[in-house]
Design a protein that fits this description.
The protein folds into 3 domains: about 65-180, Cobalt-precorrin-4 Transmethylase, domain 1; about 180-285, Methyltransferase, Cobalt-precorrin-4 Transmethylase, Domain 2, CATH 3.30.950; about 300-345. About 35% of the residues lie in helices and about 15% in strands. It is extended and about 80 Å long. It contains 13 helices and 10 strands. With about 350 residues, it is of the alpha/beta class. Helix 8 (about 205-215) crosses helix 9 (about 230-245), helix 11 (about 300-310) packs across helix 13 and helix 12 runs antiparallel to helix 13. Keywords: Cytoplasm, Methyltransferase, rRNA processing, S-adenosyl-L-methionine, Transferase. Pfam families: TP_methylase.
Length: about 350
């Protein structure tokens, strides 16, 4: 009897389980209770995460309420789907609508990143009739994202007129930078990059096309063209006859894709190399600029005139020599000798 009146003591429960589970009530329960738990599959070494089927979640970023209303020009991959920025993904997810050049093509990109934003077709055949309704949505506070099939919108793609209209109506136009075929090709071309001219697609009319090529042939900057694959033969023949066979060129094809190719040589060699083959994929073609002519040395009378003007305006002889030599192609020692002869020490 004394043993029945003696109070019962139970060991303290582990810290990670509720104290309730170790109370007398639960200890007397028949049959004894049991519990179980499972480890999520993503932490098991036997089931590694497939990055292709399950892309890594986008890091925390601004919510839709953090984005101001406006037209967002979102650059998309030119081939490899990994070439898209985190900011571009956030904008595409937060937008009220995405204007797309080809909804079927863009749908693959959105599906890959699990983006559910509605798509609206916007291409060269309907861009003018769509502008009024899009402008109204923007004025009402919508977030509108514009994408092209690949690369940066408005660069040889629909969108230039819409961006111009929004700017005129004081509607924010926000660039979301990223992939660009012309810059990717230029950076890897091996041609001069300090100065270049982007021509894009040439006119369809033969006379206009040749006239544009003549202008480019006289430029000293690197010339960049977009060329459809079925017109590469025509382009190379016309360019070689206008630029000359020996002008260096680079043909960039299928950039960032499996069959990426950079062909380098001169226009004459390119005509021969591509005469028997029909390349696939969009082509970015670069042609080296015209060689700069050597500057003619200024006459002694011209140098004397400049020296006299500078010295009469208060400059020292040494400063006048420096300014004249830097402003002309004359050598500094020649300018200095002339200055000494004219004005003495």
């Amino acid at each position: 009897m004394a043993s029945l009146l003696r109070p019962r003591y139970f060991p303290a429960p582990p810290l990670h389980l509720p104290r309730l589970l170790f109370s007398p009530r639960f200890r007397r329960t028949k049959p004894p209770f049991s519990f179980s738990f499972s480890i999520p599959t993503r932490f098991c070494s036997s089931s590694p995460l497939n990055a292709t089927e399950h892309p890594a979640p986008t890091p925390p970023g601004p919510s839709k309420s953090d984005l101001k209303s406006g037209l967002y020009l979102v650059a998309t991959p030119i081939g490899n789907l990994e070439d898209i920025t985190l900011r571009a993904l956030r904008v595409l997810k937060s937008a009220d609508v995405i204007l797309s050049e080809d909804t079927r093509h863009s749908g693959k990109l959105l599906q890959h990143y699990h983006i559910k934003t509605p798509l609206l077709s916007y291409h060269k055949f309907n861009e003018f009739e769509r502008q009024t309704s899009i402008l109204k949505r923007l004025q009402e506070g919508d977030i509108v994202a514009l994408i092209s099939d690949a690369g940066t919108p408005c660069i040889s793609d629909p969108g230039m007129e819409l961006a111009k209209l929004c700017a005129a109506e004081n509607i924010p136009v926000i660039p979301i930078p990223g992939p660009s075929a012309l810059l990717a090709a230029l950076s890897a071309s091996g041609l001069p990059t300090n100065e270049f001219t982007f021509v894009g697609f040439l006119p369809k009319h033969a006379a206009s096309r040749r006239e544009r090529l003549k202008i480019s042939a006289n430029e000293t900057a690197t010339q960049i063209f977009f060329v459809p694959p079925h017109k590469i033969h025509q382009f190379l023949e016309e360019a070689s006859s206008i630029f000359g066979d020996t002008r260096s060129c680079v043909i960039a094809r299928e950039m960032t894709k499996i069959h990426e190719e950079f062909w380098r040589g001169n226009l004459g060699e390119a005509c021969e190399a591509f005469s028997a083959q029909q390349p696939k994929g969009e082509i970015t073609l670069l042609i080296d600029g015209k060689e700069k002519p050597a500057d003619e040395a200024p006459s002694e009378d011209h140098l004397e005139l400049e020296l006299r003007e500078l010295i009469s305006s208060g400059h020292s002889l040494s400063m006048a020599v420096k300014m004249v030599s830097e402003g002309t192609s004359a050598k500094r020692k020649d300018v200095y000798a002339l200055a000494l002869r004219l004005f003495g020490k």
